[in-house]
Amino acid sequence: MFIKIVTILILTVIVGSLFSALLFLLKDKSGSDRTVKALTMRIGLSIFLFLALILAAHFGYIGHTL
Prior knowledge:
Blueprint: H1 2-27, H2 34-58
């Protein structure tokens, strides 16, 4: 159950980062790098989540139950 909660929280943060990048893209006219930072954080979190799920499956924390 812990893995599911953490996964949902990280996915929520990833979607929030995506929408904040969209907001920064639409609102910032000064050439700020906030959009790039938000998208970089989204990519980093996505890679982290992917690797964490692979490791959790490898060590048997998630997977099929018989």
